[in-house]
Amino acid sequence: MPEFGVSVALLTPFDGENAIDAGRLSAHAIDVLERGADSVTLFGTTGESASIGRLERGTGLEALRAADIPPERIILGLCAPALADAVAQVGEGIALGVRDFLVAPPFYFPAPDDDGLFDWHAGLLRQTPEETRFILYHIPEVTGVPLSPALVSRLAAAFPGRIRAIKDSSGDWQNAEALLEAKALPVLIGDERLLHRAVRRGGAGAITGMANVYPERMARIVAQGEEDTALTETVDALVSVPVVPGLKVLLADARQDAAWERMRPPLTALDSAQRGLVLAAAERERADA
Length: 289
Fold this sequence. Notes:
Elements: E1 5-9, H1 22-34, E2 39-42, H2 54-66, E3 74-78, H3 83-95, E4 100-103, H4 114-126, E5 133-138, H5 140-143, H6 149-158, E6 163-168, H7 173-182, E7 187-189, H8 195-200, E8 205-208, H9 215-224, H10 229-238, H11 243-255, H12 272-288
Parallel strand pairs: 1-2, 1-8, 2-3, 3-4, 4-5, 5-6, 6-7, 7-8
């Protein structure tokens, strides 16, 4: 069994006033953990992290802790180009017992070099307690800031024990393969279509959006290293539309709860054609089950 397993990149539900729906969030987190997920990741890309204000972040985290979800099963996403803000977000997690953080790179200035990125991450590590651990986050199609395998290895060597893993959400198998071959850090995969291949090569697991809907199936891929072809086909359909609202359509359909489709600006709900495409993929899966 891979050492990390499956963490659900939690979708963030909103109420009719566009505030975080703490009740739906905590109930959903409990459900996916009971259905086989090893942990939940709050306020990652799938959770619309860049649209969640600093004062709201506590609402989500407090909801999970009030639901008695152990802090060791919570990973808190950091989303802040300013180092001081990232450090502050770590402090907010620590106050509620969280020690594991998924850290998006600083994303405002274009094309920072490896030295600048090293210094930014090093500053975060040096300004946070020794007991905190970080997962580096390579998602260049969103942040515009890639983390090269050389930078990942450099950070791992400079801060042994402080960096738990690297999450590769690029969807680029060559990059994932380079990270796996380097063996500098455990490698987590964000693109579900590549996960079985990574597990066979020693991948440690996944932080994945599809686990919001299919935690059992994601856990099976991680445990067995075998492709779930029906799930791959659904992911193919999902990436042909805006992914986060598409995932919300899938979850709303699975739970028969339309409130899950609410988006926070600047993201918007899928149009009818996009929604139909995603729902058709879900229906095909049910027919094949």
